[in-house]
Amino acid sequence: MAVYLVASSSFDCFKCVEDIKLGEFEGGELSILTFIDGVAFKSMPPAQDHQRISDGGLEPNTGEIGCYAPTKIATPEVIREIEETVLRPTFEGMRKEGEASCCA
């Protein structure tokens, strides 16, 4: 099951993450930072959180400590799915609303 989070501000992002019960999901965490210029969008290489609270990786990710890129979970198919189901529709919606300009 994929969970996509699109937020318009860091506050919104953190609020959404608080609302997600991370313990109910399995698999890797993938972050994609995407930039827009009003005409197109371009993403940085996907990154994956890698730090655990204790040895053995038995506890949840600590978050905000570090990540690495490239990551094996960001296959071309996964990136294509994210672009087609999240990034492109979000970008097109922003363009329609006049919110896709650079440095707004």
Give an overview in words.
The protein has a domain of 68 residues: D-amino Acid Aminotransferase, Chain A, domain 1, CATH 3.30.470. The longest helix is centred in the C-terminal third of the chain and has 21 residues. With 104 residues, it is of the alpha+beta class. It starts with 9 loop residues before the first helix and ends in an 8-residue tail after the last helix. It contains two helices and four strands; from the N terminus they run αββββα. It has a two-stranded antiparallel ribbon with strand order 1-2. A hairpin with a 4-residue loop joins β1 and β2. The mean pLDDT is 74. Helix content is 30%, strand content 10%.
What labels describe this entry?
10% strand, 4 strands, two-stranded antiparallel ribbon, D-amino Acid Aminotransferase, Chain A, domain 1, 104 residues, alpha+beta, globular, two-stranded antiparallel sheet
Q: What is the H level of CATH, i.e. the homologous superfamily of the domain at 29-96? A: ATP-grasp fold, B domain
Question: What proportion of the residues form beta strands (DSSP E)?
Answer: 5-15%
Average pLDDT, rounded to a whole number, is: 74
What is Rg? 15 Å
* Dominant shape: globular
- Regions with little confidence, pLDDT below 50 for 5+ residues: none
CATH architecture grouping of the domain at 29-96:
2-Layer Sandwich
Total helices: the number is 2
Q: Which fold name fills CATH's third level, the topology of the domain at 29-96?
A: D-amino Acid Aminotransferase, Chain A, domain 1
Biggest sheet, spatial arrangement of strands: 1-2
What helical percentage do the residues reach?
25-40%
- The ordered H/E elements are HEEEEH
Report the top-level CATH class of the domain at 29-96: Alpha Beta
List how many beta strands DSSP finds: 4
Kindly name the structural category.
Answer: alpha+beta
Give the end-to-end Cα distance, rounded to a whole number of Å: 34 Å
